[in-house]
Amino acid sequence: MTHVVTEPCVGCRFTDCVEVCPVECFHVLPDRLVIDPDVCIDCAACVPVCPVEAIYADMDVPAGQEEWVERNETDSKEFPVISERLDPLPGADEKRKQ
Known about the structure:
single chain; Alpha-Beta Plaits; 2 helices; 4 strands; about 15% helix
């Protein structure tokens, strides 16, 4: 099992998850993050710190978001690893869950 970044990350790209990850499994795209399933150790440390609730275990991805399992796998092969915090994208705070 691995974890997956889903649609709520698009347009915000908070990196709280990157800071708590014990391995470097996150990759950065211009508008979001993804997780490399081959590197993720399924520790779930990233899940509670995501301010937009975008990270799920691959078997628990919400209905209608299943495509994100494959998108994380393919996009993680094409984009660089992120290991340090970045500023969120403009307007990201409006998507933050309370």
